Predict the 3D structure of the following.
Amino acid sequence: MPAIVIAIAKSVAFSFRSRAAMQIEVLALRHELAVYQRAGQRPQLRPTDRVLWSWLSRVWSGWREALVIVQPRTVIGWQRRRFREHWTRLSRSGQRGRPAIAKEIRDLIRKISAANPAWGSPRIVGELAKLGIKVGKSTVDKYRVRPVQKPSSPTWRTFLANHVKDLVSVDFFTVATVRFEILYVLVILAHDRRRVRHFNITRHPTAQWTAQQVVEAFPWDSAPRYLIRDRDGVYGTAFRKRVAALGIEEVLSAPRRPWQSPYVERVIGSIRRECLDNVVVLHERHLRRILTAYFDHYHRWRCHRALEMDCPEPRPVQSREEGPVVEVTEAGGLYRHYERLAA
């Protein structure tokens, strides 16, 4: 028989006994409990025992004086645990909270907040609403990425991306002919699409000749804002005056630091590796034909990692339905490109 039933039966039996008999029995029971407590053995209590003492603590004011087997704070702890378990059962009986946010939305919130550290949660909520995604401000607050320190200015990558359309580089490289004649090739490169805006060849480069090449490269109002060059003596007074008249600001690299003008140096390296290292230049007209053919291939067909594997002149993606892949040779097989042609 459960202990709670025994306890209730004893309490009923007490009501039919004399007061003296009840006091003697209570005294005896208290003495037995005291002896049991001195023995140092921990009693094994059942859930029904805990329920009984939890109920007694609510209806009997003197329960603390009669309690011996455990501490009064233990009974209070039982009651608090029962309260927590009660509300846990209620919360688990129905649907658990609000519906979860999809992973792609959480990732999008993190991506937007990381790319735009100055944006607050309301701004991100509005941006998501324009994309057909309705979320609350608290949701954005939960998943947004907060920078450790607010940046004082845009990053250098952002700065360069905002000014890349206004940047061009100019540089010379030399080519030796079959008769050991030295030819000077001028290359003017636009940074935004890695496009060679202008090139020309001369045997005797001067400041006047170089200045005229800049005028031919940027007619009318197409002049860039900045021109990056080295400190070669060919960029003399005549060149600097003509460039200033076009509204172009010169940016000079440090002496013997070609890495400070990496784009045009990279293009010159590509010209040598892919073209000039594989041919023997006969004379100036021959070199001009070779470079003209190369730049046509470079602009239309050569993919660049900096352009996300696109060409300086954007090249459309051809689907399989347009026909099989064919190989097209250029410049006598010096370089090739591939495209789909219908049969």
